[in-house]
Write a structure and sequence with these properties.
Strand content: under 5%
Number of strands: 0
Radius of gyration: 11 Å
Length: 73
């Protein structure tokens, strides 16, 4: 999860594809890290993929999505 979050510090063209893939993980901690990493990239193209997780069964994932949505508004 930490690695995914830190990946967001790198160039978006390199970091966004693996972070989008990490959103599909069964591990909520990794998904949260990926969401935070994507937020750090500032890549607007990742917003639709993040929003798809709005109904995720894990409350930590939903909270991370809400955090991104609030900052985009």
């Amino acid at each position: 999860a930490w690695s995914a979050q830190e990946l967001g510090r790198y160039d978006a063209s390199l970091s966004v594809p693996p972070l989008l893939e990490a959103l599909k993980s069964d591990e909520p901690e990794l998904v949260v890290g990926a969401i935070k990493g994507l937020k750090s990239t500032g890549a607007a193209s990742s917003i639709p993929a993040i929003l798809k997780l709005k109904q995720h069964p894990d409350p930590r994932v939903r909270a991370a999505v809400d955090e991104v949505v609030v900052e985009v508004r």
